[in-house]
């Protein structure tokens, strides 16, 4: 009689429901009723590398972070697994279960996961060697992809480099920064407060890939004045604009702090001086300084002079503001005793010019009374043409006609007025007057004399002939 065999516990079918408290995913480890472990099932070659819940550690979703995070999840060891590199492989990794699934399965099974010891059978050993080779190749790929990574430095920790400090291993070099165009400017023209062209050259350290773009000079720290006054620093900056070698974009960019300081001072002056002008001429409106000030940048599109910047600060105002057809006032701040305050109309349009000439033909006495008044003559000179090229009163402008206008006899008694193209007067100021504490009052007194002249021209322009 054949010996009876001990009954064996049948394997659970794949369609059977899992036991209570166990993981929903089928476990690849089975135990007998007595608790002895059985031989684990070999992972099929066709499932290697697949994105299956049984092989999360083999997923390669992303080239760097994805693989590292997937391997850490399969090992269940957090950041320590990423730091070790090629760590010793845990035999339990062949199950593909995460740490959470391992805890769930250990609660339901009689034996613990830690007690599981794989058999040393030839087939199983070969499968484990294949797994080790694949895992080693993945880890080598991770090492290659993480060499230049900013996220993994020194075992996964980020090291921040302070701004301005060179990178480790990066080459630095010293270069000499020249102070300016010495050969062209230094020794020929010297402006107080702008002796930077005579300074010694300086050396700076540059990292690899860096280059010197330019040198920025600070604004003057002395010579400041209260708002409403003009300082010597502003005149000094404008003196540099009159030097051709310095009136370029490179020099202007390197001295932009000085320009911003002078511009701010000029804006404060304009905001207060227009109040004085409004007291003298009530037709002048009070506007924000930016609506009166002209930009320092020149329009060189149709000019043979390609100098990029103007040589002065200026403002214009009239009964219609800075722009319009009406006669108004123009204040220009220019060093070397070239500052001016002008009033009238400059090169008016054809319609306005015809209207003014029509009134001069019909009522020339009214105009001559204004330009011949005592205060007007004392400030602007006699009301008659002077020598050729001499500018006095309303005469002597370069755009005046050489011959009589069309339809007018060249022997007309008011031919000197009818030849005028620009109808304007100009008052000059010295640098000493500009820097004076009472310069705003000086401007107001000049506008008082100019006001009747400006109002008369506006009547000529606005009233029908």
From TrEMBL:
Ranges annotated as biased composition (Low complexity): 1-25, 70-80
Q: Which domain of life is it from?
A: Eukaryota
**Which regions are flagged for Acidic residues bias?**
100-116, 127-153
Segment Disordered: which positions? 1-188
Which is an annotated Pfam family here? DUF2461
Regions of biased composition (Basic residues) lie at 158-174
Q: Which InterPro entries match?
A: CHP02453
Q: Per its UniProt record, what PANTHER family does this chain match?
A: CHROMOSOME 12, WHOLE GENOME SHOTGUN SEQUENCE, DUF2461 DOMAIN-CONTAINING PROTEIN
The entry's protein name is TIGR02453 family protein
Q: Which organism is it from?
A: Dioszegia hungarica
Taxonomic lineage of the native organism? Eukaryota, Fungi, Dikarya, Basidiomycota, Agaricomycotina
């Amino acid at each position: 009689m054949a010996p009876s065999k001990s009954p064996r516990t049948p394997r659970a079918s794949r369609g059977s429901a899992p036991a209570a408290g166990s993981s929903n995913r089928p476990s690849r480890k089975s135990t007998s009723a007595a608790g002895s472990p059985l031989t684990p099932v070999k992972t099929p070659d066709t499932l290697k590398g697949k994105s299956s819940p049984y092989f999360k550690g083999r997923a390669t979703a992303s080239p760097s972070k994805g693989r590292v995070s997937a391997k850490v999840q399969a090992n269940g060891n957090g950041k320590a697994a990423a730091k070790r590199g090629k760590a010793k492989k845990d035999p339990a990794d062949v199950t593909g279960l995460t740490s959470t699934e391992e805890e769930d399965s250990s609660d339901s099974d009689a034996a613990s996961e830690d007690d599981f010891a794989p058999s040393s059978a030839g087939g199983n050993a070969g499968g484990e060697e294949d797994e080790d080779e694949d895992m080693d190749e993945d880890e080598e790929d991770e090492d290659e992809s993480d060499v230049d990574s900013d996220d993994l430095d020194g075992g996964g920790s980020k090291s921040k480099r302070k701004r301005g400090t060179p990178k480790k291993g990066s080459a630095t070099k010293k270069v000499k920064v020249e102070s300016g165009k010495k050969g062209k400017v230094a020794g020929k023209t010297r402006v107080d407060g702008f002796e930077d062209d005579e300074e010694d050259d300086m050396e700076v350290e540059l990292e690899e890939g860096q280059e010197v773009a330019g040198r920025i000079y600070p604004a003057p720290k002395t010579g400041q004045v209260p708002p409403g006054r003009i300082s010597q620093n502003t005149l000094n900056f404008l003196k540099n604009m009159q030097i051709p070698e310095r009136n370029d974009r490179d020099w202007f960019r390197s001295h932009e702090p000085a320009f911003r300081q002078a511009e701010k001072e000029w804006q404060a002056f304009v905001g207060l001086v227009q109040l004085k002008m409004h007291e003298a001429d009530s037709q002048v409106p009070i506007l924000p300084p930016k609506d009166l000030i002209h930009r320092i940048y020149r329009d060189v599109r149709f000019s043979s002079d390609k100098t990029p910047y103007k040589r002065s600060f200026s403002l214009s105002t009239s009964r219609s503001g800075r722009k319009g057809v009406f006669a108004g006032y123009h204040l220009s701040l220019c060093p070397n005793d070239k500052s001016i305050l002008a009033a009238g109309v400059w090169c008016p349009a054809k319609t306005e010019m015809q209207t003014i000439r029509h009134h001069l033909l019909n009522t020339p006495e009214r105009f001559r009374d204004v330009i011949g008044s005592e205060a007007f003559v004392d400030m602007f000179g006699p009301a008659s043409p002077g020598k050729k090229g001499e500018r006095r009163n309303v005469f002597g402008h370069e755009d005046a006609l050489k011959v009589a206008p069309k339809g007018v006899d060249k022997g007309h008694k008011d031919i000197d007025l009818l030849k005028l193209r620009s109808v304007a007067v100009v008052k000059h100021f010295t640098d000493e007057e500009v820097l004076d504490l009472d310069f705003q009052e000086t401007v107001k007194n000049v506008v008082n004399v100019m006001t009747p002249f400006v109002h008369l021209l506006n009547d000529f322009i606005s009233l029908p002939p």
